[in-house]
Amino acid sequence: MRMRTRVGQGLIVAITGLSMLGGCSTLESLAGSLDKPSARMTGARVQQLTLEGATLAFDVEVENPYEVSLPLVDLDYTLDGAGTTLLRGSQALSGTIPAKGRRTVSLPAQISFQDLMQAASHVRPGSVIPFTVDATLATTAPGIGRVALPLRSDGELPIPTVPAIRLDGVAWERLALDEAVATMRLHVENLNEFPIDLSTLEYRLGLGGADVASAAVPSGVSLSKAGSTTLAIPLSFRPLDLGLAAFDVLRGNSAAYSLDGTMRAETPFGPLELPFSRSGQTAFQH
Questions:
Q1: Dihedrals phi, psi of 179, to nearest 5 degrees
Q2: What is the largest CA-CA distance in the chain?
Q3: What is the model's pLDDT at position 121?
Q4: Can you tell me the distance from the alpha carbon of 108 to that of 112, in angstroms, rounded to the nearest whole number?
Q5: How far apart are CA 160 and CA 46, in angstroms?
Q6: What is the CATH number of the domain that holds 76?
Q7: 3-state class percentages of the chain: helix first, strand second, coil last, to nearest 5
Q8: Pick from 104, 133, 158: which residue ends a domain?
């Protein structure tokens, strides 16, 4: 504290003397010659992704030229993309940048896909929107006061949607009251403009109004943009537990089905859970 006080007194004396000699122009020249903090945005990325929205992270590197720590004050930002302003916000900040050092801080921002699609009606689920973020990071510098540091970066924002899914049929290998063994063919189509890797499929299957099977199975299937595949998923259950009426339905050529569950996937923007629900009519192969 003594050193800071001595330096501050010396600076005041120097500025006072210069102001007597050169007036305001000398003061402006001195202030302009002082080192100032600097900042740059090293990235604007998706930190967390759901079907409802995303958390963006603005990674900002701040350099402090002073002998004392530099407090962060606030951040104002505007996100533009798809021909409109997608997001505008402001948030108070805490924390400091160490003296004579630099630090990268990650500043989060929340975006709702419902609000985004209301602002840009031509944007559809499954698309990827290139965006530009313009921001101003404010600090308080010693001897200067509030300093606004302009920032800019580009990024991509996905608006995920659930892949299309349908039951293409059930092939019975064994069908008796005490045991049913079959394979169901599940068609999956990626409706997103980015690839997804399906890691796990949790499902509950109903046939003819009866719940016949539920399981979580590893998938290990990669779907390219607009790609599709058919999964062969084994089934095993005891028809006697469902009743004779349900067993008679299974012995037929087709039945109504219901299929719901969750697909867990990896994307270029992070992990994603994709709940699904589908019903219809499916054929049996005996």
A1: -160, 140
A2: 106
A3: 84
A4: 13
A5: 12
A6: 2.60.40.1820
A7: 15, 60, 25
A8: 158
Cβ-based neighbour number of residue 272 at 10 Å? 19
Q: List, in order, residues 6 or more apart from 281 with CB less than 8 Å away.
A: 254, 255, 256, 257
Contact 46, 270 (CB under 8 A): yes
| Domain membership of residue 105 as a residue range | 35-158
Predicted structure pTM score: 0.80
Mean pLDDT per block of 10 residues along the chain (286 residues) reads 35 38 40 73 95 96 94 95 91 93 93 90 93 96 91 96 96 96 96 96 95 90 94 94 93 96 96 96 95
**What per-residue confidence (pLDDT) applies to 34?**
62
Residues in the chain, overall count: 286
Q: In this structure, how many other beta carbons lie within 10 angstroms of the beta carbon of residue 2?
A: 6
- Name the residue among 257, 211, 200 with its Cα closest to residue 233: 200
What is the structure's pLDDT at 12? Answer: 36
Chosen domain end from 121, 136, 158: 158
Dist CA 131 CA 155 (whole Å)? 5
C-alpha separations of 278 from 56, 192, 214 in Å: 32, 18, 15
DSSP per position, 32-75 = HHS---EEEEEEEEEEEE-SSEEEEEEEEEEE--SSS-EEEEEE
Task: Please enumerate in sequence order all residues whose Cβ is within 8 A of that of 282, keeping only pairs 6 or more positions apart, or say none.
Answer: 167, 168, 169, 170, 207, 254, 255, 257
**pLDDT value, residue 106:** 92
